[in-house]
Amino acid sequence: MNFPHRETWLHRINPSVKLLLFILYFIAILFIHNINVMINLTYANLFLLIVFSGHPLLRLLLYSSPFIIIFISSSTAMMFFGDGETTWVKWGLLHITEESFYRGLHIGFRALNFAALGLLFALTTRPVRLFYSLMQQLKLPPKFSYSFMAGIRLIPIMFEEFQTLRQAAKVRGGIRGRGLRGAYKQLRFYAIPLLAQSIRRAQRIAIAMEAKRFASREARTYYYIIGYSWYDILYVVVLVAAVAGAWWTGSNWPYFDVLDVRG
């Protein structure tokens, strides 16, 4: 289901360029061990997500709720059970040190950065444009790209078939059985028809793709032509400015005195 949203300049970036930049951005974040820089990067990425994703704030909060739980769980796990020399709290297995506190915050903010970037990419990139761009700019074979697109289109169809089977089971009085026996009956009732339909549908798609010569290496024409634009350069400038600004402000106006959480 496509929710109504506002298209911004992030939607107009070449999907392949955006994907490569995101991969480089992910790698750069992995090598940042200054918690002050990581916090500032989080501010920058959340700003891009909230302002330029084109989706309302309440919807973004709904999408981000699992990542907030991951942030809390990952940071607290490192804080409560980490190692360090300066002990703050020690009670049984619970051992909070100054070093574990900063490492937990750092890991939590790193996970939050990954979540914000992944959500921003998912909300501002259409799958069809992404696969067309992969074929045109990164030379991905069409048989793989169109197979992925066909698979994405099949997900709603499989969900409708599941709903139909569920309604049919209710009309027939439901699937009786409790415990493991009942769970096995339900699994068999839903899995076998869905698997059979999926195999037949995949066979028809494979025959159709073979007839259209998708396995051929000859040059193909495309319905959508994906090119480059000045938005790609703008995004490179924004990412470089975000990293440079986060590093400069984190080094000159740090929140904490710790410059490297590794010790």
Provide a compact summary of the structure.
With 263 residues, the protein is mainly alpha-helical. It is 69% helix and 3% strand.
Write the layout of secondary structure elements.
Layout: H1 15-30, H2 35-52, H3 57-81, E1 87-91, E2 94-97, H4 98-124, H5 127-136, H6 142-171, H7 179-211, H8 230-252
Antiparallel strand pairs: 1-2
Helix pairs in contact: 1-4, 1-8, 2-4, 2-8, 3-4, 5-6, 6-7
Question: How would you describe the overall organization of this protein?
Answer:
This protein is mainly α and 263 residues long. It folds into two domains: 9-130 and 228-252, no CATH class; 140-211, no CATH class. 69% of the residues lie in helices and 3% in strands. The chain is built from eight helices and two strands, in the order αααββααααα. It has helices spanning 15-30, 35-52, 57-81, 98-124, 127-136, 142-171, 179-211, 230-252, and strands at residues 87-91, 94-97. A two-stranded antiparallel ribbon has the order 1-2. A hairpin with a 2-residue loop joins strand 1 and strand 2 (94-97). Helix 3 (57-81) runs antiparallel to helix 4 (98-124) and helix 5 packs antiparallel against helix 6. The longest helix is centred in the C-terminal third of the chain and has 33 residues, at 179-211. The chain is flat. The model has no long low-confidence stretch (mean pLDDT 85).
Helix-strand pattern: HHHEEHHHHH
Termini Cα gap: 47 Å
CA-based shape: flat
Number of domains: 2
Largest sheet descriptor: 2 strands, antiparallel
Classify the secondary structure makeup into a structural class: mainly alpha
Rg (CA only):
24 Å
What oligomeric state do these chains adopt? Answer: single chain
Indicate the percent of residues in helices.
Answer: 55-70%
Arithmetic mean pLDDT: 85
